[in-house]
Amino acid sequence: MFTHKQIKHLDDFFVEKNNRPDKGVYFYRINGYTDEIGQFIQKYYEAARKTGVIIEGKIPNPDEKNLAYYQEIMGMDFQMNLEFLSQSLKKWLPRMNDYQRGNVARSIYETLDTLRKAGKNENMLKNAYIKFMCWLYYKFERIVNVLGENNIPKILYEGEISSYELLLITVLSKAGCDVVLLQYHGDAKYLSLDTDSSKSDNLVLPGMKEFPPDFNLKWIRTQIQNTINNERLYGTKPQTINCTNAWIEGKGLSDFKKSITARGTDSNLFYNCFCRINGVEDKTSYANELYQFQMELKNNNRHVVVVDNGISPPDMEEIAAIRRRNYTRQDEMLMDLSSNIQYSSNVELQRLMIKAFLDVMLLEAKLPDKNLNKLTNKAVYMVCWLKRYQKELFSNWKTPDIACFIHMGPCQNENEALFLKILARIPTDVLILNPNLNTKCCLEDTLLYEINFAESLPLFPFPQQNTDVQMGTAAYHAERELDSLMYQDTGIYRNQQYAKADAITLQTMFEEIQILWKEDLKYRPNFSTENNIVTLPVIFAKICGVKDRMVPKYWGYVKELITEDTVVVKNVPYIDSTVPNPMKSASAAFFKNGRLQRKKIREYPEYPYSFLREEIQEHILDKLQLLIDRKLIRGTFENGTEYTVIASILNMPKEIVRLIQKFDFTKKNPKLIYFNTGEKMISLEDSILTAFLNLVGFDILFFVPTGYQNIERYFNRKLMEEHQIGDYVYDLQVPNMALVSSNTRPSWCDRIFRRGKD
Fold first, then answer.
1. Nearest CA-CA partner of 153 in 25, 29, 269, 248
2. pLDDT at 284 > cutoff 90
């Protein structure tokens, strides 16, 4: 039989029998965790899976069927002697050789003898013997046939072991097995069975702590399967790996300009740079420095790609070119999509791109809220972008060429950040320039090197030509700094300071409308400027009835609301559905897969807003996309109403467009007052325009003295407040507002003689 020995290192478990001192075996229990122990358990699990037995929970007791078969083959005889045990094993487990059978028989005998000495009677010994024999046959048959071989079989037991389980595993240990007991809840239960710890040793290593809550053999199987899947997923891996930033001196652009051959000489590595530079070192020379930097790269025959204003999403043609199908598993999806990454002229580069793609996407898959659909969409984006920039970056690529990808401005979304991570893992220098310290880049990566300067400049397009370089004087930049001091978090705002805004509708009392109506937006509740986006608190309300049926006072109230920036609609509808709209015929081409095709819109010959400021055009298109995304108009994505929405907003009345053009988000906002005094219904186009103007930031009031339903019948949900201010009045005619008296205060006579009438 074999004797228990103590290990000096965990790897001793994997030493073959002939190389072990005294040819002993190891029987250890593990009650705590370290990273080293975690790696050992995974390795030991693999060994037990190949040549051993893994027990999770308990060894099932022999059932009636097991016992019936045993009785049929062996009968119910029992003798407490070594010869009987040996002959029984020969009959019951005939594949065992004499050496194996002798060790097992002696070990069983010693165990039963220990029970006898502890006071167990003959019948108890017989029951223990039969249980051992059934367990050997049904659970450990693959072990007993390899006992004594040079490759020692392994038993891995997870959980709190019972008395008879411990006895049998001890039998197998003495017969030539290594054993590891995983005890997640400590040693107390075990020591109640083996008080002097004579059957096994307790593993003690420095830094041991409790097992992680999710650690178990099931988790290990998952990790092993993931490893196997990844090996299948990656296929043949590249021969070279990235050495990113390890060679740099931290000198920013100078590191990028360093010759490829001077970066390192190991042929198994490619030496690239991945850096983000926040702020600028010298405002007066920054633009020229960038221009000269790019020229130097190109003069050194480096392939350079520069991206301004973010990486544009893949268009329909790019997406259609990606071979894909429906997926049920992550690995299936990644393997299939990675097959789209091709570079036939250099297989090594192809393998590098595939590996980088898989490395980054597998890390992304581990983040929360990353279901298969979301992950697939991101993966399609990555493949599209790799294919888009492949030719520019890697034309005629050969080792050790390193391209350069320059991203002007911070990463605007997760997809851009993912793509730059992929680029940083292939033979490409990746440079992110963020001169404006007021903007933040969402990219985070362990490989990324970051340089920070104290000076700040507004973001501008990368200077590609000499004519693009505009050098600011010291006085110019001093003035810009003064602007920053005056207009940053001071409540004072420069004209047209902000280009982006989001509207929120205020819930008000009717009496508050007149108070808020002519106030600057910055003085209204909930106004804010966060991350260069203005929150616009706006009024959107329907006023039903006439207070006290006092019609002159009613019109006087309305007149006080009319400003120079107010569009007043007296005739219903404002936009007639029957009037030809030149944008209708093209609206279908302007919208694909839920997204506005902004480039097509802007390039359309009849595009009506090309003369507007660039930021205003973007504001209009942003809110048009939002109007569609929120499905505010009934019928959107159901009966083609989205195309009517697009056509309507791209053909707004001139007076509306002019108000949007002059709209300064921190000052007074434009207004729309709409009278609906009769039974004539408001058009769908009017509803679309109104919902859109609410998103843009207009104040909007509907005066409906009849109380009839009008605009809301085209809305999918409640968008505006409704105020019931008095009795319904019919057949009112909207007067000439120029002739209406704005003095709506009651006279002293009215106040006296109306007293008590309410």
1. 25
2. no
Closest CA to 174 of 196, 192, 156, 147: 147
The larger pLDDT score, comparing residue 746 to residue 196, is at 196
Q: What is the pLDDT of residues 149-166, one digit of tens each?
A: 999 999 999 999 999 999
- What is the model's pLDDT at position 401? 95
526 Rama class: left (phi>0) / alpha (psi -120 to 50) / beta? left
Give the 3-state secondary structure of residue 561. Answer: helix
Distance from C-alpha of 425 to C-alpha of 386, rounded to nearest angstrom:
12
Q: Are 26 and 177 in contact (CB under 8 A)?
A: no
Question: Which of residues 750 and 438 earns the better pLDDT score?
Answer: 438
Report whether 172 contacts 155 (CB < 8 A). yes
The predicted model gives 607-624 an average pLDDT of: 93
Neighbours of 265 (CB within 10 A): 9
Report the range of poorest mean pLDDT among 175-184, 336-345, 484-493, 544-553. Answer: 484-493
The C-alpha atoms of residue 88 and residue 78 are separated, in whole angstroms, by 9
Cα(724)–Cα(95) distance, integer angstroms: 94
Query: What are residue 242's DSSP bridge partners?
Result: 270
Q: Which H or E element spans position 377?
A: helix 372-394
Which region holds residue 205: left if phi is over 0, alpha if psi is between -120 and 50, else beta?
Answer: beta
In 3D space, the residue among 751, 752, 757, 734 whose CA is nearest the CA of residue 680 turns out to be: 734
Put simply, whether the predicted model's pTM sits higher than 0.85 gets the answer no
* Length of the chain measured in residues: 758
Alpha helices in 93-156 (DSSP H): 98-117, 122-138, 141-144
Q: Which 8-state DSSP code applies to residue 455?
A: B
Q: Which residues pair with 406 in a beta bridge?
A: 306, 431
- CA–CA separation, 741 vs 746, rounded Å? 12
CA atoms within 13 A on the CB side of 716: 14
Pair of tokens at residue 351: 């393998």
Which band of pLDDT confidence, cut at 50, 70 and 90, is reported for residue 746? low
Dihedrals φ, ψ of 723, to 5°?
-120, 120
pLDDT for 474 equals: 52
Distances in Å between the Cα of 704 and the Cα atoms of 547, 567, 708 are 12, 17, 7
CB count in 10 Å sphere of residue 568: 16
Q: Where are the beta strands (DSSP E) in 383-453?
A: 403-408, 428-434, 449-452
Predicted confidence at residue 464, as pLDDT, reads: 75
Please state, in angstroms and rounded to a whole number, the distance separating the CA atoms of residues 179 and 233.
Answer: 34
Query: Which of 689, 668, 480 is closest to 574 using CA atoms?
Result: 689
521 in Cβ contact with 670 (< 8 Å): no
Contact in structure between 318 and 384 (CB atoms under 8 Å): yes
The three-state secondary structure class of 703 is strand
Round to whole Å and give the CA distance between 298 and 304.
7
pLDDT band at 745 (very low <50, low <70, confident <90, very high): low
- The percent of residues above 90 in pLDDT, for the chain, comes to 77
Cα Rg of the chain, angstroms = 40
CA distance 234 to 352: 10
Up-side HSE of residue 679: CA atoms within 13 Å toward CB?
0
Q: Provide the pLDDT for residue 747.
A: 47
CA angle 659, 660, 665 (to 5 degrees): 110
- Contact between residue 686 and residue 540 where contact means Cβ atoms under 8 Å apart: no
